[in-house]
Design goal:
This is Cytochrome b5 heme-binding domain-containing protein. Belongs to the fatty acid desaturase type 1 family. One of its GO terms (molecular function) is oxidoreductase activity, acting on paired donors, with oxidation of a pair of donors resulting in the reduction of molecular oxygen to two molecules of water. This protein has 444 residues and is mainly alpha-helical. It contains 18 helices and seven strands. The chain has two domains: 97 residues, Roll (Flavocytochrome B2, Chain A, domain 1); 340 residues, no CATH class.
Length: 444
């Protein structure tokens, strides 16, 4: 059937792409230093390419030994351009007797999702409305100007300062949702323009790093709620999540913190600290350790602009206190919005599920309303966003009925909650996981 490991590196261009492989052979090449993957039945050796992959080493490595067809389609709005990079990596194809899907995935669900994707493409749901994003950027800049004018006219008393901080936190949160759009390449047809505006919004408007965000966030989309692959569920022993990890920790008698109280201490070390402490340290460390001077320069323009605007009113120390408070407020907003769709869902080790099932098990939606759309940056349509991450967010509501129909037909749970229920489920799921840990810790 083609000799599997003997053709890890084709000897010449004449031999490139001539191998025929089984899934068993492909799956053997799923280790660091030896990585193959399959896209549209074509087998690629990405061992050397992983170091140059724009999405980072970890992202593409998560699909080593697997079918990456749907992930490839989800992340690349210009597939023909990307295939130019894939062509030299081609070493063969799956044997005719091999199914298109791997690891006993449901062929009907795989095909149903690919048909769904073709349908939303025909409906034009990947087409952007430029006015939507122009208005969104405009209201962010307006908020920034309003915060400064408020202090300029009313002074630096407690009430003007509090109002200024709230306006800045709103601006920062909305800029976070906008950089998310550019980061997912969902605004412009050409990726280069998305990358440029992404650096402007996340760097100049927020003081963070585009590359740090890309390498972290795309992993989350590739393998959501999967331990060791989704960095968003890497809690550094601070929390135990889901129903599997708490029991594993309990059986091993691991007690870094009193996890049966995690639903209580979450309010003190979760929402308040994620952005101003953990993310800030991680972003700075990443930019310096990777010598990402371009992103560092973009982020410095944010701090230069901020201090030039507010040091004349508050002095350097006062300006530091103000931005720290703004980050504190923004962090609460960010944590509750991003975690209400994921923490209460299934969190487990790798199960090698098909794209539709994997994303639906890890995500849920929040009811649509003008406020919910604005407040969450349309991440209340988390299901549609995860299935089609390059789709402009103003089209999620049009895609939702189509997605829901496919899920109902194939028995895939499609959950929709109220905003308040989403918040409550975060705490409830942490409490349930903590109780599972305590039971295993004491009795197993």
């Amino acid at each position: 059937m083609g000799g599997g490991g003997k053709q890890t590196e084709p000897k010449s261009n004449g031999e490139r792409g001539c191998g025929v492989y089984t899934w068993e052979e492909v799956q053997r090449h799923s280790h660091r230093g030896d990585q193959w993957l399959v896209i549209e039945r074509k087998v690629y050796n990405v061992t050397d390419w992983v170091k140059r992959h724009p999405g980072g080493i970890r992202l593409i490595s998560h699909y080593a030994g697997e079918d990456a067809t749907d992930a490839f389609a989800a992340f690349h709005p210009e597939p023909d351009f990307v295939r130019k990079f894939l062509k030299p990596l081609l070493i063969g194809e799956l044997a005719p007797s091999e199914p298109s899907q791997d690891r006993q995935k449901n062929a009907a669900i795989v095909q149903a999702f690919r048909t769904l994707r073709e349908e939303v493409e025909r409906e034009g749901l990947f087409q952007t409305q430029p006015l939507f994003f122009c208005l969104h950027l405009g209201h962010i800049l307006l908020l920034e100007a309003l915060a400064l004018l408020l202090v300029w006219n009313w002074g630096t008393g407690w009430i003007p300062t509090l109002l200024c901080a709230m306006i800045l936190a709103t601006s920062q949160s909305q800029a976070g949702w906008l950089q998310h759009d550019f980061g997912h390449l969902s605004v412009f047809k050409k990726s280069c323009w998305n990358h440029l505006l992404h650096k402007f919004v996340i760097g100049h408007l927020k003081g963070a790093s585009a590359n740090w965000w890309n390498h972290r966030h795309f992993q989350h989309h590739a393998k959501p709620n999967i331990f060791s692959k989704d960095p968003d569920v890497n809690m550094l022993h601070t929390f135990v999540l889901g129903k599997i990890q708490p029991v594993e920790y309990g059986i091993k008698k691991l007690k870094y913190l009193p996890y049966h109280h995690q639903h209580q201490y979450f309010f003190f070390i979760g929402p308040p600290m994620l952005i101003p402490v953990y993310f800030h340290i991680q972003i700075m460390h990443t930019m310096f350790s990777r010598r990402d001077w371009v992103d560092l320069a973009w982020s410095m323009t944010y701090y230069l602009r901020y201090f030039c605007c507010y040091v004349p009113f508050y002095g350097f120390f006062g300006s530091m206190m103000l931005i720290s408070f703004v980050r504190f407020l923004e962090s609460h907003w960010f944590v509750w919005v991003t975690q209400m769709n994921h923490i209460p869902m299934d969190i487990d080790h790798e199960k090698h599920q098909d794209w539709l099932t994997m994303q639906l098990n890890a995500t849920c939606n929040i009811e649509q309303s003008f406020f919910n759309d604005w407040f969450s940056g349309h991440l209340n349509f988390q299901i549609e966003h995860h299935l089609f991450p390059t789709m402009p967010r103003h089209n999620y509501w049009r895609a939702a009925p189509l997605v829901r129909a496919v899920c109902e037909k194939h028995g895939v749970p499609y959950q929709v909650k109220t905003l308040w229920q989403g918040f409550c489920d975060v705490v409830g799921s942490l409490k349930e996981s903590g109780e599972l840990w305590l039971d295993a810790y004491l009795h197993k």
